Amino acid sequence: MHGGDLDERKKAEREIHESHTLLTSIIEGTDDAIFMKDEHGRYLMVNSRAATLLGKPADEVIGKTDADLLPPDIASHLAEADRRVMGAGDALTVEETLPVAGVPRSFITTKSACRDHEGEVAGIIGVATDITGLKETEKALRESEALYRAVVEQAAENIFLVDMETKRIFQANAAFYDSLGYTAGEIENLTLYDIVAHDRASIDRNMERILEAGRLHLGERVYLRKDGTFLEVEVGAAALSYGDVDALCVVAHDITERKDAEYALSEVREAERRRIARDLHDLSLQHIASALQMMQATQIEENVGDDSDLGRQISALREAVRGLRGAIYDLRLEGGRPFVRSIESLVEMFHQLYPERDAKLKISEDFPPDLPEPTKTQLTRVVQEALTNVRRHSEARSVTVGLGLSEGWIEISVTDDGSGFDPSERVSEPSPESGYGVGLSGMEERMRAIGGELSVESEPGAGTKVVFRVPR
Q1: Distance CA 380, CA 375 (A)
Q2: pTM for the predicted model, two decimal places
Q3: Distances in Å between the alpha carbon of 88 and those of 74, 85, 101, 120, 154?
Q4: Which residues make Cβ contacts (< 8 Å) with residue 436, sequence separation at least 6?
Q5: Who contacts 148 (Cβ-Cβ below 8 Å, separation ≥6)?
Q6: Which fold has domain 23-135?
Q7: What percent of the chain lies above the pLDDT cut of 70?
Q8: Which uninterrupted H or E stretch holds 361?
Q9: How far apart are CA 160 and CA 195, in angstroms?
């Protein structure tokens, strides 16, 4: 043999050895079980993982069949799969269950026919992947989904999903159908615009707010039933991914009974307010005003100056009369008058009680004369509180109340030319000494109750502007 031939043979043997080493490393390094059987089902090769699953060392597995190693029913099932592969000559993927250390485990096994040098089927080669963890995860997911559906379907709240892009309602629970009068088949043609009794600009703006915040409490809203009647609800919503859809999950709590009770209570309170206001006006105010007139007459008769005791008492009594008139006005404020008229009255009363301060009202042409409850009541109260803050803390010479609309929002502003303050220095727990902080905290709570927003623009020496915004 020539030296060159010898070198070539050694090179080939080395390459074969390296390939065998690499193949053995791959077979032994994988977490999958790899095995080979002859046409009679006897094991010709198993890797370490396969030997572990069969519960024997590899050298004790070689030459054995599944019948020698496994319970009869399992061995019979495996042998049947082997015969199908050898009979068809094609690959077959099956799910199998094997006892491992006495515990059943699930496997996905791919078996292929193994052929001899003449092309005849001489056995099979297989690769088994343990999917027990995956099966357990799938089971837990199914149980979780079943629990979720049971909770959602039995919930008293209206729960539904909306496609963010199309605004189409594509899933809802039983309470939704019961409350709004639709059937499961009918929601395929429904969009958010069909059931929310507010203008589109307001709906679109709220969806933008939810996307920005992730989740949002929208407060009280009005929905439209199939029969055309209205349903009052308190709404919370969250953005989420549902499959390949960017969705909105809406939870709407029916507050009809609560609103009816509140209305009945407000009727009682309104009657009581009117009675108290009437009694204060007809009795207390008249008596105090009469006493004031007599004291003023005495002051004139005796030619007593304002800096005397009598003069100071008359001044204090005038302040009491003015305060009492303001209190009587407050009691009459919630008498069911339109919103714009209530704000006009607030500004008018501010001017009457404090004539030294200029009070103006600016109303945009498109602003509606009235607003629905509870928006009307809460906005009236926050404007009243803002004017009180101007009186108590701002030292302002003038104040302007503005009513307008802005991109689907009702926008109300109270602007003064007073001393101003630094909004960033507001305390977290306001006290009477903290000035604007007390009123602002109360106003913020009222705005949150109706799904609105409050913002403050101010700086020391440059006045203050408080803006209230609520979706239309």
Answers
A1: 8
A2: 0.44
A3: 22, 5, 33, 12, 52
A4: 389, 393, 421, 426, 456, 458, 464
A5: none
A6: Beta-Lactamase (3.30.450)
A7: 83
A8: strand 358-363
A9: 12
The tokens for 197 are 């009794």
Q: Is the pLDDT of residue 458 over 50?
A: yes
∠ at Cα 66 (60, 69), nearest 5°? Answer: 50
Cis peptide upstream of residue 374 (ω within 30 degrees of 0): yes
Q: From CA 416, how far away is CA 239, in angstroms rounded? A: 39
8 A C-beta contact, residue 383 and residue 442: no
CA distance 67 to 74: 8
* Tokens (6 digits) for 63: 């030459």
CA angle 349/469/459 to nearest 5° reads 75
Query: What's the one-letter identity of residue 335?
Result: G
155-254: which CATH number, 1.10.10.350, 3.30.450.20, 3.30.1300.10, 3.30.420.40? 3.30.450.20
Residue 167 has a pLDDT of: 92
Quote the CA–CA distance of 436 and 460 in Å, as a whole number. 13
Burial class of 403 by CB neighbour count within 10 A (0 to 12, 13 to 18, 19+): buried
Q: Which residue do the tokens 């054995």 mark? A: 64
In degrees rounded to 5, what are phi and psi of residue 158?
-75, 120
Q: Which residue has the tokens 């088949």?
A: 185
Rounded CA separation 281/29 (Å): 96
The 10 Å CB-count burial string (b at 16+, else e) for 316-336 is ebeeeeeebbeebbebbbbee
Q: Return d(Cα 218, Cα 234) in angstroms, integer.
A: 7
pLDDT tens figures, 78-132: 888 888 888 887 788 888 888 887 788 888 888 888 888 888 888 988 898 888 8
Q: Give dist(CA 161, CA 240) in Å, integer.
A: 10
Q: What is the DSSP string of 281-315?
A: IIIIIHHHHHHHHHHHHHHHHTT--TTSHHHHHHH
Mean pLDDT of the region 242-251: 88
Residue closest to 44 by CA, chosen among 118, 103, 125, 121: 125
Q: Is the pLDDT of residue 467 over 90?
A: yes
Say which CATH architecture domain 338-472 belongs to: 2-Layer Sandwich (3.30)
Instruction: Report the phi/psi class of residue 38: left, alpha or beta, with left for phi > 0 and alpha for psi in -120 to 50.
Output: beta
* CA–CA distance, 125 with 127 (Å, rounded to integer): 7
Interatomic CA distance for residues 48 and 241, integer angstroms: 43
User: What pLDDT is stored for residue 16 in this prediction?
Assistant: 62
CA distance 30 to 14: 24
Q: Whole-angstrom Cα distance, residue 465 to residue 224?
A: 36
